[in-house]
Description:
Blueprint: E1 21-27, E2 44-50, E3 54-59, E4 69-73, E5 78-82, H1 87-90, E6 98-99, E7 103-117, E8 134-137, E9 145-149, E10 165-171, E11 176-181, E12 197-202, E13 207-211, E14 225-243, E15 246-253, E16 261-267, E17 277-282, E18 287-291, E19 294-298, E20 303-306, E21 314-332, E22 338-344, E23 355-358, E24 366-373, E25 380-382, E26 395-396, E27 402-408, E28 424-428, E29 433-442, E30 448-455, E31 470-473, E32 478-481, E33 488-493, E34 496-498, E35 504-507, E36 511-519, E37 522-533, E38 539-540, E39 547-549, E40 555-556, E41 559-560, E42 565-568, E43 571-573, E44 575-576, H2 578-581, E45 584-594, E46 597-609, E47 614-617, E48 621-622, E49 636-637, E50 644-648, E51 654-658, H3 661-666, E52 672-673, E53 676-677, E54 681-688, E55 692-693, E56 699-704
Parallel strand pairs: 31-37, 39-46, 47-55, 48-56
Antiparallel strand pairs: 1-7, 2-5, 2-7, 3-4, 3-7, 6-13, 7-8, 9-14, 10-13, 10-14, 11-12, 11-14, 14-15, 16-21, 17-20, 17-21, 18-19, 18-21, 21-22, 23-28, 24-27, 24-29, 25-28, 26-27, 29-30, 32-35, 33-34, 33-36, 36-37, 38-41, 40-44, 42-43, 42-45, 45-46, 47-49, 50-51, 50-54, 52-53, 54-56
Amino acid sequence: xxxxxxxxxxxxxxxxxxxxxxxxxxxxxxxxxxxxxxxxxxxxxxxxxxxxxxxxxxxxxxxxxxxxxxxxxxxxxxxxxxxxxxxxxxxxxxxxxxxxxxxxxxxxxxxxxxxxxxxxxxxxxxxxxxxxxxxxxxxxxxxxxxxxxxxxxxxxxxxxxxxxxxxxxxxxxxxxxxxxxxxxxxxxxxxxxxxxxxxxxxxxxxxxxxxxxxxxxxxxxxxxxxxxxxxxxxxxxxxxxxxxxxxxxxxxxxxxxxxxxxxxxxxxxxxxxxxxxxxxxxxxxxxxxxxxxxxxxxxxxxxxxxxxxxxxxxxxxxxxxxxxxxxxxxxxxxxxxxxxxxxxxxxxxxxxxxxxxxxxxxxxxxxxxxxxxxxxxxxxxxxxxxxxxxxxxxxxxxxxxxxxxxxxxxxxxxxxxxxxxxxxxxxxxxxxxxxxxxxxxxxxxxxxxxxxxxxxxxxxxxxxxxxxxxxxxxxxxxxxxxxxxxxxxxxxxxxxxxxxxxxxxxxxxxxxxxxxxxxxxxxxxxxxxxxxxxxxxxxxxxxxxxxxxxxxxxxxxxxxxxxxxxxxxxxxxxxxxxxxxxxxxxxxxxxxxxxxxxxxxxxxxxxxxxxxxxxxxxxxxxxxxxxxxxxxxxxxxxxxxxxxxxxxxxxxxxxxxxxxxxxxxxxxxxxxxxxxxxxxxxxxxxxxxxxxxxxxxxxxxxxxxx
Length: 706
């Protein structure tokens, strides 16, 4: 029998609280056993706590048969919505299948929401008191996420066959794909086996219940994984665990793994060996966990059990990667059994309340666990009274900087609210604090028969994310943004301070950039690596003339280093082809990219003209015999630019060469080479130049006759 309605109006912070205070909550109600011995699952309530006026809507979006509750609530109000009459519509069963039973609670202003299983026995057999109570603290947006890992007690069996450990899942969006991998078998048709991936699809408000097949504690769901492609919420419960003859329901709504922390404190209630226990689950491999100076290294989905707190009043836990911590405690009950209670603990490094309201829901034992920084332990008041919780009530926890108090309060100090509508206020004028509350329920014989335990504290986190590593090019810069609304920004590059107390900085130098941000008591950090790559230096190795004719031949475009690409007037090209390009002015660009950095080289204003083709007359033969007729080989026609002529023997030897049209057309070749007459025969000529045409030939044969 666990935490009941012990706490009912909540805290005010300078920034939004997301552990229990929010404007939207998703919740899957677990199935709880109800047996003839009076160990029941009813009555059940959703309880809403306001700090300001609110319009609240309680609905099951996937089930039109459920009539929503809508209420306008004044400030500082506790309102219970009883669900007992609809218990078959709301408890998440049958198991191993999709159900339409997910609750959505919305509010126009931030509120707190708790699910309360009273578990009151049968008055007809003198059991008109809470035998199987439980309270589930809804986490709002902190309870929504895409990855969950399950903590679980591993020492105590379920007392009756109907009572089992369960995982209850609710989807917040349509077409949500959920993957679960369990560490123990779960009920279904067929059963869900351990260490296998199973995939289901849920729509908005639909639920899925995973209930273990055995009550043997050796087959718990510890370390099981539940993930989704869209946000889901997950409830855990373990029904009627048997500790020395006392049976109790324990459970809570989980924090999503992405909302876990790295610093926790557990405060012991029971002093006997093995009576208080701690369960720690890791989200990542190679997670180093320190618990009171003892180092443990855990991998993803592993659970560390601390099974004895009898020698220490607290356990101070830190880690280098996020972890989840669950605390199992309770009260000594009838025949020295333990009336169990458990809670998911809040991470300490961020958040906490400066003021909160609560309700004492039991006339019996009522304890507060209070955690506060040493410097603030003297700043408490309860209902304005500074004597109810003083600095002397606190004990320093080693070198952690934290102090704790575990203090009980009498009815005279904190009156009991029979209808759970009376409130008290605890506040601290110096700093933030975290509060857990542990309550007991007694029967007519004054035996404790039920136990409640819950933390009511802000588990808010701040986040900063500089994003993935980036590479830019020399001369470029990027802006790093650490996010808005922080009170302090500290920037470093390679460990050296840069910039100022600003949300953004512009950077253009390679290095590891880190930002540490602070908001209130919350801190966060992020880092990224920036690589600045050099700009490449391409060149165009093809030699261009300033002008070409549409009749000119094409040629390859070549650039260095290789690997780039050419464009001609913006069109991709590998050759310069005047006949295809046509008349116009052309810009040739060679573009080269290396390490995602691009540079170009450009040649502008290459002209292609529609040139008039000039005709040349080349004789077929000549006879250098000094008779005054055809004594020389002469080229006739209009002068052309870039003229060159060569005459070869049939063996390829040059016997005449000229780069002057005037010389070739007036002096020509006289048939000699180096003063020696060349023999009669067939020779080959070759002419090149701009706008050359000789019957569409640029070479031919020549006969020398003697």
